Amino acid sequence: MFHPLRVARIERTVGPGGAGDTVALTLAVPPELRPVFRFLPGQHLTIRHITPDGTELRRNYSLCNPAPPPGSAEPGPAELTIGIRRIAEGGFSSYAVTRLTEGDTLEVMPPAGRFTLVPRPGRFAAVTGGSGITPVLSMAASLLAAEPTARFTLLRSDRTAASAMFLTETADLKDRYPGRFQLISALTREDRQAGLAGGRLDAGRLAGLLPRLLPVGEVTGWYLCGPLGLISAARQALAKLDVPGERVHAELFHAEDAPLPPAAPVPGRELARDAEVSATLDGRSGSFPVRDGETLLDAVLRGRPDAPYACKGGVCGTCRARLLSGEVHMDRNYALEPAELDAGYVLACQSHPLTAEVRLDFDA
Ligand code: FES
């Protein structure tokens, strides 16, 4: 369900072209909605925006301010901050960067997402690319404030120093927690005076670099966030360094309109024709016919416009549902971890029926 939240502050930053192409947007949460907007470090907000021609856009943005500590008596956050980089003309990001003003209202869904770090003792590390810094900034700030013995290493990669988001905020963490927060910056499109030499962080480079930065085997949680190339490279490097897969968590940042690899074909199976999907959502169930070629999400949306989704690209995980019976084929999956797949979860926006009847539970 979407709630109207007022834009309390907009901080514009200077981008590579000299004009502001990113903003830090702070939304005010009225007292009655604070419990609804409690969040875990790493979670995101979904914003709904209607363009002048009536098209509905939904975009996810990670929260980057610290989360209230676990068990805190606070009813919930009074403010929420997200970082937005302008990606394409005509999309929500260009509207937010160029036209949105303080006092405007946005329609916002409560925080969601399972790419989270609940503060606890231990050593944690993150590899981020570009705007992938946003959820990790919240994770590091929340962890270091809540757990006096926890340590966090951040390897952030940006194209150029001028394009890097939240540079001041990450530098502040280094000043505030000098013994517990380690910051390494890499620039892929320019050389710098200090830090790593320029160039892409590929799997070979990361596998050589990480053991020189920290005791890899002692890290209990790895958090990878950014574009597909960086996430794949970091996964390969960590596998090479014998890091168990269950310690590695990833969130792909899919820039608006950026192409994803093509969907994989169905391996030796025919999609079911004249299929029907039964779906449970907010405790109510219904059945919906699935038209040839459409996804289960689109079939459900015709009867239940409140079905959850944001990217429709297999990236954000908002449309996650549990498959209770039947079989489906997913075009692509960049959101669900292996344990979730084993537990029977699917992405409704990527699922097509392989059997005539399919049952989904969005509440599970
Ligand atoms: S709506 Fe984003 S993964 Fe399905």
UniProtKB/TrEMBL annotation:
Q: Which UniProt keywords apply?
A: 2Fe-2S, FAD, Flavoprotein, Iron, Iron-sulfur, Metal-binding, Oxidoreductase
Outline the extent of the FAD-binding FR-type domain.
1-118
Any one GO molecular-function label of the UniProt entry: metal ion binding
2Fe-2S ferredoxin-type domain residues: 275-364
Query: Pfam families given for it?
Result: FAD_binding_6 (PF00970), Fer2 (PF00111), NAD_binding_1 (PF00175)
SUPFAM superfamilies according to UniProt: 2Fe-2S ferredoxin-like, Ferredoxin reductase-like, C-terminal NADP-linked domain, Riboflavin synthase domain-like
Q: Which cofactor does it need?
A: FAD
Tell whether Iron is among the UniProt keywords: yes
Query: Domain of life of the organism in this record?
Result: Bacteria
Q: Which InterPro entries match?
A: 2Fe-2S_ferredoxin-like_sf, 2Fe-2S_ferredoxin-type, 2Fe2S_fd_BS, Beta-grasp_dom_sf, Cbr1-like_FAD-bd_dom, FAD-bd_FR_type, FNR_nucleotide-bd, MRET
PANTHER family tied to this protein: 1,2-PHENYLACETYL-COA EPOXIDASE, SUBUNIT E, NADH OXIDOREDUCTASE HCR
Identification of the protein by name = Ring-1,2-phenylacetyl-CoA epoxidase subunit PaaE
| Source organism of this protein record | Streptomyces aidingensis
